[in-house]
Queue: 2 jobs
Job 1
Amino acid sequence: MGRQPCCDRVGLKRGPWTIEEDHKLVHFILNNGIQCWRTVPKLAGLQRCGKSCRLRWINYLRPDLKRGALSEAEEDQIIELHARLGNRWSKIASYFPGRTDNEIKNHWNTRIKKRLQLMGIDPLTHQPIDKEKYQHEPDDKTELLSITETYDKRNETENFIENANDISLPNNMLSENINEELWNKSFKTMSTCYSPSISLEAEESINFSTTSNVAAAPAEEEDSVQQWMDSIFSCAINQLEEDLFLLRKYN
DNA sequence: AACCAACCCAACCGCAACGGT
DNA sequence: CACCGTTGCGGTTGGGTTGGT
């Protein structure tokens, strides 16, 4: 018999988080930090399990989260990394400071997969799809353009909102008066806790003041910086190749 | 306006990995 | 080494949103 799930206790709340719960969790973590997730809900006065609190914090409330849609360059880098690493979302996410594995996974499943399929590329193998089995001809220009346009519009709107606020706090917390010193301190603490694969050197190079879009190099590999540069380089090459492909296709 | 289907993403689940004893 | 508690990860799902009819 397996281990008991952590959320089976009667009386624990599940489902979407309320603003009040978010506030409680954020204030508790910013003032006390995290020693043990299991104790967090109890001490913060939340009727949630620790696992749920951890997920909410990591995927939504973390101060160093980068809000807004992923850029085309980020998307291309995801494709490149996925080709190398497969479905290792947390590993892939470590290349995108401020992005969560969940966010990247969702983006892959809802957008990138389709984009690749439309281009005649198998999202699993990253190889061209067999012509006979290929359902969507890439000649379907309108379909491809409609996806791109929809995404661009959303991107524009989200970027506008993000710039207007000029802060990466969740929208429902913008008016909250949070202790600035604690907030800044938490950037350091949390980025260390939740980006374990980012080296200290790389971490120092990251501007956590909410506007950073610099990718960090993972620390495990000895030649991480070289790999990082390679990935950026190959990303640029991929983009170029893709643009050429589309140009040849539609002109 | 009402309905429906497709889409999107926050949240959940279960297992793996890790660390302490 | 075995056991146990905790955290991390990847797959999946449910419900809200959007777009089309």
Job 2
Amino acid sequence: MSTVEIEKTAMLLKLLGDKTRLTMVKILDSHDCCVCEFVEMFKMSQPGVSQHVRKLKDVGIVSETRRGQWVIYSLNKQSEYYPFIQDLLNHLPSQDFKLLELEEQGLRISCD
Amino acid sequence: MSTVEIEKTAMLLKLLGDKTRLTMVKILDSHDCCVCEFVEMFKMSQPGVSQHVRKLKDVGIVSETRRGQWVIYSLNKQSEYYPFIQDLLNHLPSQDFKLLELEEQGLRISCD
DNA sequence: TTATTATATAAGCAAATTATTATATAAGAA
DNA sequence: TTCTTATATAATAATTTGCTTATATAATAA
């Protein structure tokens, strides 16, 4: 069982204590995504999405790779928080239906 | 593995994404406490503490029992969130040293 | 009864959060 | 080069949060 000190944990829980970011992380746990996919999924402005993923990136729980015009985000399995996050996500129902909706609309970009 | 829907989980994580409340819950996991003990532990005003425990009570993760003048708070093991919270708390280092400090000052009230 | 102790509630305020629109930057296509 | 697409950053506004002080309520002791 990985242990994370209490202040860091509080910070992490606050970060994940937002419906949008929590759903993002749950989705990234099984599929990489780019910003424009999240924009569709969450019906949110592109800067809004960018700000959320930046917060996730700032604490190192997601990482990015540029692929042409797109920046692909994925869960950072090297993060010190990864085991903790895994445990947490296991309690959440799959959000893959959101990806399926995207595919049905022909709006899926990343192929992972 | 207990599953909690994503919106409720986000709400719960936001609630626990505060250092004071997270520490309270970690302590309550092993020992019941009253408000005045928390006031000492967190060097915070009594209304400040009361407001934190009320938030925890409002979503049902802690319960209260009056014992004379004191109101004793404990983790509510019947909460739908209890299994989730247990998993989460297992990643946290014990905060019992805070209780020991209280005892050394002769300020421990509840005996559980 | 009055005084004391423990807790809760109300009001106020500064700081943080989450969204928006406007604009800048980066990559690829024409 | 210019145009389009994808993303990031800046500035701003509305809301929420987390504390404080002042006050109310509840239980016990004198």
